[in-house]
TrEMBL record:
It comes from Kribbella hippodromi. It comes from the Bacteria. Keywords: 4Fe-4S, Iron, Iron-sulfur, Metal-binding, Oxidoreductase. Signal peptide: none annotated. SUPFAM superfamilies: FAD/NAD(P)-binding domain. This is FAD dependent oxidoreductase.
């Protein structure tokens, strides 16, 4: 046969053909490659499980991807609430920290690349993009096989595993498997939820499509498509549109809450396209926006970002009071902190405001029971479809919270396959403690739960440090901050008498300055509505005046207190350029007033400014605060809670070092280090410029020694967690970690060191 004939394939006509079929097996099959599914897959793969990740789109990330371009956000909520140091931990933290480092400008395409990079690096993950699950087979109450089809390679997949996870957003796997679910809003009476919406408000949140514009420097004409909305005044808030706002800042271009948000998505998409092109026509051609002359429409979303569709019924349904009262759950595996954020079902066409918020005082726990299907025995849920009421869903639905739940589902699947048990079996107390421990080891943050790790050899060591940071004075080398709003400095006070605190103020005119010492209702509560003491200072005009806050009160247990300077436009407080782990200053600009009719508590918002603003107060402390001790490295908390929970060296220490000494020879295969990437900083993934690529508190350069021998060195770290492995294992009675530089002006901090 000639070479030309070898290039030709001839297949004679037949009655019918079938698509190529591939059979794949793994320990875990995950349907859905948004942030929840992605974090579940990475978590399980790193724990040793084989994973098949099925994603029906060409990229990972779901609503965070370049196809939709919504920022990933959760408990930090743009730093607009009282959830201090609440950014989600674990795999999501790694992804957001990496994205901020590579992509501080928030380019959605680059965030795609970060997600794909992390997934393809895991050899235990088989990634099937452009592949949609379309069938399930079961044996009794268990899923045995999921079928899926990839339109790009015309291949049908038959996927088997002992455990399955639905992270698909619409719950396609749970739906096909017959899992119990709900759509819409429960009545106020079912769970005693006063915030449940009225019929006029509607029972579903809608979907959104965003657009980006670009200034090309020359006039650009725009001819709208025929389907563009021709009467912009049909949108009640049409006067809010302008040329300066784009992307997901226009989240309220929303529609579809009165429709079936699963099966009517194409209809919803077309209506949103009509709105977007009608809005752009208004901006370009109404004559009201001359600055739009050189703007072009750079990008319009091709698929809508979905908020709500199915919610599946698990072994517990989280509800409004769980969030508002911050109820404790023995099976807590994740945290939430976004407000309860309900949107009117009519979306952009509604006469209501675009959203209605109810803010709890702080973060809340999410129980494992919400992830376990009540009637499909080997099915876990992750993402926005977990078992929650419509009201609670309004908070748990946001992507960073979904991702943290995904991490928990991934780890639960690992334990199920390792021990040959079903998801519900992990509620047995010993197994549940194991699940929580494994999650904490990977960096997950579970409010109120500390890591108790019997395998950690560092717990057997004697720890010493070259020095410890003691807060005696923060120099007044920063700009003065005007008290146009009340300001506060968060301080980690020890139990006992409150130290004397000396501040420096500049006074423009004679006045009376009121100063209060406040705290929350728990040691880790950052809503300061408990006033411990108050002083008033009569001040004459003049710069550089010292005031000594000396209150006769005491603290019952170690906790954060707020040194509050009440609003006074005649006074400015001196600040410092010194930064330190666990120290932050705040402003009070707004208050959520109580409304008993909907169960809304009164919450004063005390929020930080983003760097490079937001400096700490310059102050002197007598006696000094010694809250950054080396023993913190063994306390089981890897972020500030009721105290900083970090060891930090004295700023004058030239080689900050922590040493671990054992009485007997230890065999060490792995060391885990926890650094400070500022869990108080909201790392929005897109459309938000971040001031730093690497967080200033994070250790950049460190050495590890076994005795006198350097066994590891990292020159350019920017991540929260570092794992150092040794093959063959180290054998030593002494380890030392030298923290040489950070990325900023901070006493060198470390949250944890664990050895295995």
């Amino acid at each position: 046969m000639s070479a030309a004939h070898e290039l030709l394939a001839v297949d004679p006509a037949v009655a019918a053909r079938n698509f190529r079929t591939k059979h794949l097996a793994a320990d875990l099959v995950i349907v859905g490659g948004g942030l929840a599914g992605t974090c579940a897959a990475i978590t399980a793969a790193r724990a040793g499980a084989t994973v098949i990740l099925v994603q029906d789109r060409p990229v990972l990330g779901g609503n965070a991807s370049s196809e939709v371009r919504l920022w990933a956000l959760g408990a930090t909520a743009h730093m607009f609430n009282n959830n201090r140091w609440s950014r989600e931990g674990g795999v999501l933290d790694e992804l957001l920290v990496e994205n901020t480092y590579r992509n501080p400008e928030g380019n959605a395409v680059l965030f795609d690349s970060v997600l794909l990079d992390k997934v393809v690096a895991e050899h235990n993950i088989t990634l099937l993009l452009n592949t949609a699950a379309d069938g399930v087979t079961k044996d009794g109450d268990r899923i045995t096989t999921v079928t899926a089809f990839c339109s790009q390679n015309s291949t049908r997949y038959e996927l088997t595993a002992p455990i399955f996870c639905d992270a698909s957003g619409d719950g396609v796997l749970g739906y096909l498997a017959g899992a119990a679910y709900r759509m819409g809003a429960e009545s106020k009476d079912e769970f005693g939820e006063l915030f449940a919406p009225s019929e006029s408000y509607g029972g579903l949140l809608g979907q959104s499509i965003y657009f980006y514009s670009k200034d090309v420097g020359v006039p650009v004409q725009f001819t709208p498509p025929e389907y563009a909305l021709d009467d912009i005044t049909k949108i009640p808030r049409w006067r809010s549109f302008n040329t300066k706002v784009q992307g997901c800042r226009l989240w309220w271009i929303e529609y579809g809450g009165r429709l079936d948000t699963v099966h009517d998505t194409e209809e919803i998409k077309w209506e949103l396209w009509k709105v977007v092109y009608g809005v752009w026509n208004h901006l370009k051609n109404s004559g009201d926006f001359p600055e739009a002359e050189t703007l072009t429409l750079e990008w319009v979303g091709l698929i809508p970002g979905k908020r709500e569709s199915r919610r599946f019924e698990g072994l517990y349904m989280l509800r409004q009071l769980d969030l508002v009262e911050q109820r404790r759950h023995d099976d807590a595996i994740a945290s939430g902190g976004w407000s309860i954020d309900l949107h009117p079902a009519d979306g952009v066409f509604s006469e209501h405001a675009g959203s209605s918020h109810l803010h709890p005082r702080g973060v809340y726990q999410i129980p494992y029971r919400c992830l376990v299907s009540k009637n499909v025995n080997n099915l876990l849920f992750a993402g926005r479809i977990i078992s929650v009421s419509h009201v609670a869903f309004a908070s748990t639905r946001v992507m960073a919270t979904c991702a943290q739940v995904g991490q928990a589902a991934g780890m639960a699947a690992v334990l199920c396959t390792r021990d040959d048990v079903l998801p519900a079996d992990l509620l047995q107390p010993d197994r549940l403690r194991t699940l929580q421990r494994e999650l904490l080891r990977t960096g997950q943050h579970i409010p109120g739960v500390r890591l108790e790790d019997p395998d950690d050899l560092a717990q057997l060591a004697t720890l010493t440090a070259s020095s410890e940071f003691v807060l005696a004075e923060l120099p007044a080398d920063g700009p003065a901050a005007l008290l146009e709003h009340s300001r506060a400095q968060l301080l980690p006070l020890p139990a006992g008498a409150v130290p004397q605190l000396t501040l420096t103020v500049d006074v423009a005119a004679p006045t009376t300055l009121a100063v209060e010492l406040r705290t929350g209702n728990r040691p880790d509560d950052y809503t300061p509505d408990v006033i411990l003491a108050r002083q008033e200072f009569e001040l004459d005009a003049g710069p550089g005046q010292q005031i000594k806050v000396d209150v006769d009160t005491s603290i019952d247990e170690p906790r954060y207190a707020f040194l509050v300077l009440l609003q006074n436009s005649a006074v400015s407080v001196r600040t410092t350029n010194q930064q330190a782990t666990g120290l932050v200053s705040l402003q009070h600009k707004s208050t959520q007033e109580a409304d008993e009719r909907v169960g809304r508590p009164r919450v004063e918002f005390w929020t930080p400014e983003r760097r490079p603003e937001g400096r700490n107060f310059a102050l002197a402390v007598n006696p000094p605060i010694a809250a950054w001790i080396v023993d913190n490295l063994q306390n089981g908390y890897a972020r500030p809670t009721a105290q900083p929970n970090a060891w930090a060296a004295d700023p004058t220490d030239a080689r900050p070092t922590v040493r671990l000494n054992w009485a007997d020879l230890q065999r060490i295969s792995r060391i885990e280090l926890g650094f400070d990437t500022d869990f108080d900083h909201a790392m929005e993934s897109v459309l938000w410029n971040h001031a730093e690529r690497a967080m200033p508190f994070c250790v950049q350069h460190y050495l590890i020694r076994a005795g006198n021998q350097v066994v590891a060195e990292r020159l350019d770290n920017h991540q929260t967690r570092n794992t150092i492995t040794f093959d063959p294992p180290l054998q030593t009675t002494e380890l030392s970690v030298e923290l040489l530089t950070t990325h900023g002006n901070t006493p060198t901090p470390l949250f944890e060191i664990r050895c295995y």
